[in-house]
Design a protein that fits this description.
This protein is mainly alpha-helical. Helices cover 65% and strands 0% of the residues.
Length: 71
């Protein structure tokens, strides 16, 4: 997981704690929960995109390796 994905996950969790605290203290706000759901979906999408990145760059074929033979 990249640094930006970890940061996004931390922000999402912190937002969940803050919104829950707000809801307990002052009452529920649908817009806050909707915003947190959007943030959560963006975080999941970012983590999914991050996990599909190759671990290392593909290596170019070696000279004389498999491939069409010169004519």
């Amino acid at each position: 997981m990249s640094g930006s994905t970890k940061a996004m996950t931390i922000v999402t969790c912190a937002a969940l704690v803050l919104i829950t605290t707000y809801t307990v203290a002052l009452g529920s706000s649908g817009w806050l929960w909707f915003g947190w759901i959007v943030l959560g979906v963006a975080t999941v999408g970012m983590a999914a995109a991050d996990s599909t990145e190759p671990l290392e760059a593909p290596r170019p074929p070696r000279a004389g390796g498999a491939g069409p033979s010169p004519r």
